[in-house]
Design a protein that fits this description.
Layout lengths: L1 H23 L4 E5 L2 E5 L3 E3 L3 E3 L4 H34 L7 H25 L8 E4 L1 H22 L4
Antiparallel strand pairs: 1-2, 1-5, 2-3, 3-4
Helix pairs in contact: 1-2, 1-4, 2-3, 3-4
Length: 161
């Protein structure tokens, strides 16, 4: 049981780190043009230098929603990690980690909403590029989506021994 809790703890920390990286770095989409390789993220468009992401007025609200949900997912993931540590030392034997699991599932929902909006509105769109593909931040966000769901369910199922 101790090994399982330690494994979940390590995967939870890895999920928090990957959420930070995927939200902060600007490689959600990578595009190629005659000027070279360009990458766009949630915040900046980078070619040789980085500048603010040019977004038209109808997509601006969608981008702000993606940014907000990804930041919320980081916050909920960190809160769930802290709650797990608190519950680990204060929870009676035989009780389940309901609060931690619920918070982690809220994190999962935030990731789902944020990445789904990005997929629907911005996938394949890198300004001034001829061809594009998803970058590592986009893939990391989907990996975090899977990990947070698995961790949330495991927290709900696990009992403290």
């Amino acid at each position: 049981m101790l090994v399982l809790l330690a494994g979940i703890f390590v995967v939870h920390i890895a999920t928090v780190i990957m959420l930070f990286v995927s939200t902060i770095a600007n490689v959600w989409m990578v595009g190629y043009s005659n000027l070279g390789t360009a990458s766009s993220g949630l915040w900046l468009l980078c070619n040789k230098t980085c500048e603010q992401l040019p977004v038209n007025s109808r997509d601006e609200a969608s981008l702000k929603a993606v940014q907000a949900f990804m930041i919320l997912s980081i916050i909920f993931s960190v809160i769930a990690l802290v709650m797990f540590i608190v519950q680990l030392f204060t929870l009676e034997k035989g009780k389940r980690f309901y609060i931690t699991g619920a918070i982690m599932l809220v994190c999962w929902l935030c990731i789902l909403i944020g990445v789904s909006i990005y997929t629907a509105r911005f996938a394949g769109k890198v300004p001034e590029s001829t061809s594009s593909h998803h970058g590592y931040c986009f893939i990391l966000a989907w990996i975090c989506f899977c990990f947070s769901f698995i961790i949330g369910i495991l927290y709900l199922v696990l009992r403290k021994k």
